[in-house]
Amino acid sequence: MAKHHIEAVVNGDAVEFLCETEETLLDVLRDTLHLTGSKEGCASGDCGACSVMLDGRLVCACLVLGCEVGGRHVETIEGMAKGETLHPLQQRFLEHAALQCGICTPGFLVAGKALLERTLSPTETEVRYWLAGNLCRCTGYDKIVSAVMDTAAAMRKG
Amino acid sequence: MRYEAPESLEGAVALLAAATGDSRVLAGGTDLLVQMRTDIVDPELIVDIKRIPETRAITEEKGGWRIGAAVTGAELKEHPRLTHVWPGVVEAANLIGSTQVQGRATLGGNLCNGSPAADSVPALIAAGAVATLAGPQGTRDLPVEDVMLGPRRLALRKGEIVVSFLLPPRPKGSSDAYLRFIPRTEMDIAVVGAGVSLTVDGAGSITAARVSLGAVAARVLLVAEAAQALIGSRLDRPAQERLEAAARAACRPIDDKRGTTEFRIEVAGVLARRAALIALDRARTS
Amino acid sequence: MAETMTNGPSQTYVGTRTIRPDGVDKVTGRARFGADFDLPGQLIGRVLRSPHAHARIVSIDVSKAAALPGVKAIVTRDDFADQPSEFIPAGEMMMNYRDVVRNVMAREKALYEGHAVAAVAATSVAIARRALKLIDVTYEVLPHVIDVVEAMQPGAPLLHPDLFTAGVEPKPDQPSNIAKRVEIKQGDIEAGFTKADVIVEREFKTAAVHQGYLEPHAALASVSEDGSTELWCSTQGHFIVRAHCARLLGLDIGKIRVTASEIGGGFGGKTVVYLEPLAIALSRKAKRPVKMVMSREEVFKASGPTSGATVRVKLGATKDGKFVAAFAELKYQAGAFQGSPVQPGTMCAFAPYDIEHVHVIGYDVVSNRPKVAAYRAPGAPISEYAVESVVDEIAKKLDIDPIDLRMQNAAHEGTKAAYGPKFGPIGLEETLNAVKKTEHWNTPLRKWQGRGVASGFWFNIGGETCASLTVNEDGTISLMAGTPDIGGLRASLAAVAADELGVPYDKVQPIIGDTGSLGFNFLTGGSRSAFSGSMAIVEAAKQIKTDLCARACKLWEAEPDQVEFSGGHVKPLGALAEKVKPMSIADFAKVAGKTGGPIGGVGRINAQGAGPSFGTHLVDLEVDPETGRVTILRYTVAQDAGRALHPAYVEGQFQGGAVQGIGWALNEEYIYGPDGKLQNAGFLDYRMPVASDVPMIDAILVEVGNPKHPYGVRGVGETPIVPPLGAIANAMENATGIRFTELPMSPPRVLRALKERSLSGRA
Fold it and tell me: Which of the ends of chain A has fewer CB neighbours closer than 10 A, N or C?
């Protein structure tokens, strides 16, 4: 079975790649496109470490096939900063010490950014439920939630 | 492993009907990809139905709503009107997994995965949803409660796919609710799921109801006796107790890593009652 | 090193919330974790694992797999030399090389479902997976035993025919699944109980839980034709990995260079080797690099969860609340090979309290489960869950406030712990007081809500540490530490270096050096990396300061008492100050070559004087009486950090450990079927807390300085997981009136207990 030839846009750049049917978008990002910022924690959609945006929708890259993204736009953690300027959420994660080992951080940042693009006034409960698909074992979530709420407040001020 | 993404129903049906080995329909992929990864399934052919317009549309039809089988939970939630008309169906679809999973998971996939613990199915059954299937012999309709026959066993014939669901028109004073029990607050498979849809008249009396329970038997149950307990009542304490008893009596659950038999039976009654109360409250204020 | 913190340099950065130097890479996805490395020409390695919980391995036929195109190497037990029995420290536990080689690759028997039986290296994942299916293993399935009490019974399926219980007299002549009996004793326990006015005796049961690190084990090995080996892996101790691999593969230690990748969590579970020896063995055979990553299922089935246990506690107190006698018997699962944390569990059980008569017995028991590894304060959460529950019952029986009762009996400076040493200054009472003062403690509760409190502790360790500071030509500082940074270590060490040398924080660039770049470092564990690392950095800085003063003396033709180092400069004193100006580190850097060569210091120490860290946790929860579901409403942690080098990362340890404890108490457990197979080997059914399951965790930093550390630092990483189990069980008792003696307190268990209570008529 010949591989699929896929053309897509990743972090604003046109890319093309070959993939087998059974390769997930996560496999393609990491192993073919060498974008290793998205992580594999479980390969079953239960941990969120592979969170990416697909056509503006927050998804787990391990639950999307590589051959499904032809013609689509994918955004990963690698596209979050703009040049040397970190996204406010990235900056606040650093200031709040919202990461310890850092393996879950890309997933949380992509998911958190997706939330802030929908609302800049989430309650703490809304933040926690939105992020329930992102596991963290180090922080107990406290500083992550604070960083997201704090970023929302700062972005509200404009 | 072949991957095809037909752009028409006929194309999808033809591919599935002609397939000689194991073939799977791909909608959201939140079950299929996990099963492939863990070697539970090893299909020769994957048919992605997301390019077929009928599977992706949400349209009003004859006073009701037709929802494509490949519409995601997130899209359901973002629809401006569905949440008001069918809050139970929408919330059920949006309890599946996580925000990320809801961005991909579909009603069609949730049903056709064949798990009696599927979250959206009790809500669809309580709603009286009818599935439209397309196959080599043409199209046919099946009430959702008749689609899943048992764990991973569907009433679909070879080459048939679920195209869409039709939710019936809503009489005034109607609403629905779905509750599930999970040990955490999110991310678990339902240990018990309860969907209730009802209509209440101006005097506060329930004139119509459907009650469906998930994860308490080999298939998702439509519990007529539980509905009977509601109809004609105002969901006062005695009616609640009859509802709980009827819900519990219908359960034939298993002991597994997610819950014991006794636990599921006990909680089924509790959830049926709580879901009914929420649906009633919504119906009164709708 | 007896400098106290009052003699330390003025602190600009230590104690503040600096941005971690490795932070930008972590928030941009640039940081490279174990699975993020690739080498040209690499092969993919995969492991074939036993489907049986207990089976003799009769034969392994790899011929069909070897013939598959794309398969470049296969290893089995034949590729690993047997190891004689030798116990060595592994983190805070002990391990035996004879067991290690068998855990890494099964020999005579498969001892748990998931036990490695063979490994292949192939040119793609698909080929590797296919190759595994082509390996023919003939098993003779044997009866298995999972539960610790069952495993202890005579007649239980025997795992090791050569395992005789150690620590019993006379030495047994029959092998057993009981590997070891340990004991600590103080005073006369029988006499002690006669003095008690109230005695509570209870038996508790806990299930095995997993550390739950998000990053699966990963290793990439590249062996050259002359045997020199490069290894990248996700580990808590790359020097330890090097030692194990050298031993298992018969290599000189100096021929292996291990680079620790960024590590995505460990909590003790990455202090041992699984994939690393396999990757090296495969690479050696294939003559190509081999990359191996575990799946999540493999992590659950084939790495090292912690013990489940059965614990009996008997505590006696006078009616005034003085604890007079304490007894406990601990039976801990070790998994397939001996080495559960029953010893530290025994030592920690009653350690927070000053009790005259103490007797604790512990049993280390093997059964057909994965070999346990350390999990954050290994052994202590289990024993202290039991003890803190019983303490709470005594408080109720005597009608004494639970914080006051603990305060009355609290260990303090000078208390002799039952396991041996006398405590120096410690902060248990401070944490109890801190909790008592909180608004949390004083907030009223409603029906079906309950509040629980518990204390706990961990010894913490020091150990061999080697860290260096180098002054670069432009005066910037390169810092190299040798313990992987799991949670902010580089930030803390950079702050210490900056303050010691008087340079700006952002002029210090810390890295974690590979094993070729530093002397031996014990692993990141035992809450030691900040404690020991900072000590080594202080030592390295001292060497630089001494060196610079010597260079100044040469340049200025001065005597040593005419110069001193302060504020990042060597300063001339007295009359000399009129002749020469102070020189900064950067000034010296410019003339380094002319004044003797490169400037640097290396701290090589065996850090002593680790101080224990005590903590007290307070939790409010609510029970849904109709479903048994528990919601954590509020949580406060007060813990003694000695001196917080970086307050935010110390708070982070408190919060993370508390939430792990919440998961352990409420929902996490290994669930085995009657076939001995793990039923919940994934994040779906192994239920760790998600963000919506927990509230904010209030962290109160108590600082009772450790006089044996130049800054007063105590390790903090492990204590936070010790009190939650007891605190939550105590809160459940207050919410429901039921004492839960089995963990997790999952909804079916809670609901059944509530139903049984109402059926039996007790309100």
Answer: C
Nearest CB to A137 within list C23, C24, C214:
C214
Average pLDDT, chain B: 97
- Answer whether A15 touches C (CB < 8 Å): no
Q: Is residue C735 part of a domain?
A: yes
Contact C748 B185 (CB under 8 A): no
- CA C622 – CA C629 distance, rounded (Å): 8
Residue among A94, A106, A125 minimizing CB distance to C29: A106
Is residue C597 in a domain?
yes
CB contact under 8 A, B183 and C751: no
Q: Does B136 touch chain A (CB under 8 A)?
A: no
In the numeric block, which tokens belong to residue B167? 């939710």
End-to-end CA distance of chain C: 60
Q: Diameter of chain A by CA atoms?
A: 55
- CATH number of the domain located at residue range(s) B174-285 in this protein: 3.30.390.50
Q: What is the mean pLDDT of chain A?
A: 97
Domain extents in chain B: 2-167, 174-285
Q: Which CATH number does the domain housing residue C683 bear? A: 3.30.365.10
Statement to judge: residues C660 and C762 lie in one domain: yes
- Please write the tens of the pLDDT for every residue from C259-295: 999 999 999 999 999 999 999 999 999 999 999 999 9
**Considering the domain boundaries, does residue C502 fall inside one?**
yes
Length of chain B, in residues: 286
Residues 6+ away with beta carbon under 8 Å from C538:
C1, C496, C500, C603, C710, C711
Asked whether the beta carbons of A119 and A112 are under 8 A apart, the reply is no
ipTM of the complex: 0.98
A41 and C214 within 8 Å at the Cβ level: the answer is yes
Between A1, A44, A130, which is nearest B34 by CB?
A44
**What's the CA gap between C469 and C480, in Å, rounded?**
6
For B85-110, write each residue's pLDDT tens digit: 999 999 999 999 999 999 999 999 99
Among A26, A65, A136, most B C-beta atoms within 10 A, so best to mutate, is A65
In order along chain C (763 residues), what is the average pLDDT of each group of 10 residues?
Answer: 39 94 97 98 98 98 98 98 86 84 98 98 96 98 97 97 95 96 96 98 98 98 96 97 96 97 97 97 98 98 98 98 98 97 96 96 98 96 98 98 98 92 95 98 97 96 96 98 94 96 97 97 93 96 97 96 96 95 97 96 96 97 98 98 96 98 98 97 97 98 96 96 98 98 98 92 59
Could you tell me if residue C586 is inside a domain?
yes
Contact B99 A64 (CB under 8 A): no
Instruction: Say whether A43 and B185 touch across the interface (CB within 8 A).
Output: no
Would an 8 Å CB–CB cutoff place A93 in contact with chain C? yes
- The class level of CATH for A88-157 reads mainly alpha
A28: contact with C, CB 8 A cutoff: no
Domain parsing of chain A, residue ranges: 4-79, 88-157
Which among A59, A65, A68 has the least Cβ separation from residue B100?
A59
Domain B2-167 carries which CATH code? 3.30.465.10
Look up the pTM and report it.
Answer: 0.97
Contact B184 C687 (CB under 8 A): yes
Mean pLDDT value across residues B236-243: 98
Domain residue limits at C676: 424-460+611-763
Q: Are residues C626 and C590 in the same domain?
A: no
CA atoms within 13 A on the CB side of B7: 0
Check residue A29 and report its DSSP letter.
I
Q: Tens digit of pLDDT for each residue in B149-185? A: 999 999 999 999 999 999 999 999 999 999 999 999 9
Q: Is C744 found in the same domain as C617?
A: yes
Selected for mutation to probe chain A from B15, B75, B100 (highest A CB count within 10 Å) is B100
Residue C167 sits at φ, ψ, to 5 deg, of 85, 10
Fold of A4-79: Ubiquitin-like (UB roll) (3.10.20)
C688 and C739 in a single domain? The answer is yes
SS3 for C658-726, per residue? HHHHHHHHHCCCCCECCCCCECCCCCCCCCCCCHHHCCCEEEEEECCCCCCCCCCCCCCCCHHHCCHHH
Q: Check residue C5 and give its pLDDT.
A: 35
Give C748→chain B minimum CA distance, Å: 6
Number of domains in chain C: 2
